Amino acid sequence: MGNLLRIILAILLPPVGVFFTVGLGGQFWINILLTILGYIPGIVHAVWIIARRNPSSHR
């Protein structure tokens, strides 16, 4: 799955974007908690996870 699609998912439903990046690990549950506490922190965390786990393929 491409980064662009994951980022779009992260904006709409942050836990889904994290799930497709790392699965049901600790980062997924942290993201659910952040999303419950505030939608924006969930988005920021999800985009950070996606950017960190998937380096650019333009290297």
Question: What can you tell me about this protein's structure?
Answer:
By secondary structure, this protein is an all-alpha fold. Helices cover 78% and strands 0% of the residues. The chain contains 4 helices and no strands. The protein has helices at 3-12, 14-22, 26-37, 39-53. The longest helix has 15 residues, at 39-53. It is globular. InterPro entries: PMP3. Belongs to the UPF0057 (PMP3) family. It is found in: Membrane. The chain crosses the membrane at residues 7-26, 32-51.
Average pLDDT for all residues: 87
% residues in beta strands: under 5%
Oligomer: single chain
Helical segment count? 4
Shape: globular
In terms of per-residue confidence, which ranges show pLDDT below 50 for 5 or more consecutive residues? none
Q: Please outline the major beta sheet.
A: none
Question: Helix content range of the residues, please?
Answer: over 70%
Give helix and strand order, one letter per element, not per position: HHHH
Quantity of strands, as a count: 0
* End-to-end C-alpha gap: 18 Å
Question: What is the C-alpha radius of gyration, as a whole number of Å?
Answer: 11 Å
> Strand pairing plus helix content: what structural class?
mainly alpha
Topology:
Elements lengths: L2 H10 L1 H9 L3 H12 L1 H15 L6
Subcellular location: Membrane
Main location: membrane
Pfam families: Pmp3
Descriptors:
single chain, 59 residues, mainly alpha, 4 helices, 78% helix, 0% strand
